[in-house]
Amino acid sequence: MYKNSYGGGGQGQFGGGGSSDIRLLSGEYDDFESLKSRIIVASGAGGSDSKDQGGPGGSLKGYNSTQNKGKGGTQTFGGIGIENGKFGKGGGENRTIGLEQYHLGTSGGGSGYFGGGTSDDYGSGGGSCYISGHEGCVSVIKESKMDNISFKTQGDISIHYSGFKFERTVIDDGKHEMKSPNGTFEIGHLGNGFVRITTIFDISEISCNFIPYYSIMHYFVFHIFLSSLIY
Questions:
Q1: I need a labelling partner for 14 at 20 to 30 A (CA). Which of 38, 209, 213, 230 fits?
Q2: Any idea which GO molecular function terms this record carries (predicted)?
Q3: What is the count of structural domains for the chain?
Q4: What is the rounded distance in angstroms from the CA atom of residue 205 to the CA atom of residue 137?
Q5: Phi/psi zone of residue 161: left (φ > 0), alpha (ψ -120 to 50 degrees), beta?
Q6: How far is the C-alpha of 207 from the C-alpha of 210, rounded, in Å?
Q7: How much is the pTM?
């Protein structure tokens, strides 16, 4: 895999899992201004390698690989490894698998708010999650640049600079049970990530006093499912 996986999963002979997100600005996945506009991010798992299993996608912090070689991403830093994770991307290299150079390959870090780090011949770390308004999350400031990312230090630092926020949020990471696309329950999620958006109640039954632009985020449930281990 020579390029980052969809959603910023780190490259490598066993690529890292991509993340799923909801953002305010469109653009290519790794466009920095678009990445900054993310108000929900669900993390991906780190890739496994010959000597170690990758870490599942985490909540506020991504999980390390089984042997702690590849570190998980956090709210303010990418996971540490041979190639560190970055804002919105898992760490990785484009060295590929081959019979005579198998030992040269790496796994890829999981993507997320900050991606996990990769480690030579060992599993990589998972990415971290972010929800604007969720306790423990740390929001970037609008003035951040790709090479100089800064974070909110005043007020509620969990709230995105846009002002959009969510209430009564829950993050289930890749080590916990969650509902799968087919309606069954699983620990983490293997395969492609997905997002489900459902209404809490029938908006058509709201009285005429309802103001539709007022904090519309209160009236939807966003289900974003995190990756477990990638084999």
A1: 38
A2: ATP binding; transmembrane receptor protein tyrosine kinase activity
A3: 1
A4: 34
A5: alpha
A6: 6
A7: 0.82
